[in-house]
Amino acid sequence: MLPCVLSAAIGIALLPGAVGAGRAYTGGDTFQIRSERESLYGWVRVIDKKKADLRLLMSDASTIGAASLSSGENRLTYQEIVRLMPALAPDMKRALLIGQGAGLMATTLRDQNGIVTDTLEIDPAVADAASGFFGFTPIGKAIVGDARYEIRRLTGPYDLIIHDCFTGGSEPAHLLTVETLSQLRGLLSEQGILALNFVAFFEDGRNAALASVARTIAQVFPHHSVFVSEPGKDFNDFIFLASGNPIDLGSPTLDAGQAAWLKDRSISLDEAQGVILTDDFNPLERLQTRKAEHYRRFLVDWFGTDPLVR
Q1: Average pLDDT, the chain
Q2: Which of 112, 163, 181, 257 stands 20 to 30 A from 303 (CA)?
């Protein structure tokens, strides 16, 4: 199982222009490349592992979506926090998803809460794969472009903004600066929440990259909390919740299971170990070199090199 591996109806038609579709490899668990397409940002692949009941959306050596083959349900644990957002702010009606990936979070918000979600995705090949293989149908605006530019053209307010621009390689560091986060805060409603996912090592709360993201969020938002996807693991998804107003983690609209889920994953960070990230000073990619190497090694160990190299 992938780290933090976690949904939407699955389509099986091949994408127009896909190459290498149907290539199969065998190992401990047979997997099949359903689609393979080169974009300006790398190779975008849809890979099935039937024995694991898993369909993955990959961008080079990054996993940006995962669903059950049998049910279409989401298989990325950190995305489960999305199910809790409407309980933390019960009047949510409109959301923005930055980093659409397979589109499963937008689908969840629509199906469970009737929330209309605009999506932003930089890679058109990823957007096509989400529609062709993960059953994603745009609920609101479906924008393809660099979020740093596109958010300047959006009109709020949004009750929820999900910032999920993970990559196993280089960091989208320009989307994690004071300037970007300030623009996003300006798009939030008065009680709106930013949910930001960041992959890093914990290192007892002293990881410099993680602390820098926390310190930068604190520079923009007066209230924030952070949670881990997999308690007890050093390498993890870290989910920040930030708002201009206090977020009631003890809200009576959370059921006992949801409250326990949050409590078990709540952590503290030493923000003094980090720096404030700005457009003029942003060492985040250098600070995340170890993360990138670790993540890529893991995927090569899991898949082998054949499906990840052309």
Answers
A1: 86
A2: 163
Tell which phi-psi region holds residue 91, choosing left (phi > 0), alpha (psi between -120 and 50) or beta.
alpha
Query: How many separate helices (H) and strands (E) can be counted in the chain?
Result: 9, 13
* Start-to-end C-alpha separation, the chain: 24
DSSP string, 225-288: EEEESSTT-SEEEEEEEEESS---TT-TTS-HHHHHHHHHHEE---GGGS----SS---HHHHT
Angstrom distance (rounded) from CA 289 to CA 163: 21
On whether the CB atoms of residues 210 and 269 are closer than 8 A, the answer is: yes
Q: What share of the chain is helix, strand, coil (3-state, %, to 5)?
A: 35, 25, 40
Residues making up the chain, counted from first to last: 310
Tokens standing for residue 235:
């390498």
Between vectors from CA 87 to CA 86 and to CA 89, what angle results, nearest 5°? 65
DSSP state of 223: E
Give the count of domains, the chain.
2
The model carries a pTM of 0.89
Same domain (yes/no): 39, 162: no
Task: Please give the residue range of the domain that contains residue 97.
Answer: 77-290
Whichever domain contains 161, its CATH number is: 3.40.50.150
pLDDT at res. 24: 52
User: pLDDT tens digits, residue range 60-91?
Assistant: 878 889 999 999 888 887 777 777 888 888 88
Cα separation of 150 and 154, whole Å?
Answer: 7
